Amino acid sequence: HKRRKLTYMESSDRKAENRTKIQLGGLILKSGLAAYFEIEPGDDLQLDPIARDKATILLGVLLYATEQLK
Predict the structure, then answer these.
(1) pTM of the prediction?
(2) 24 vs 47: CA distance, rounded Å
(3) CA Rg, the chain, in Å?
């Protein structure tokens, strides 16, 4: 019973984390950053080399902004 409850909690935590990631992605889209870097919904940011490069640049911008906020 304890193992099942622990597994449920881990599953619940994963679902919450995934929901947050999806919401953060929505914020990137709403902010216009994705469009600025010509990243379109449906682009495969892992397998498409051009889209991956655009995503890498976007990540660099976000990391730079994070450093500036510190």
Answers:
(1) 0.75
(2) 21
(3) 16
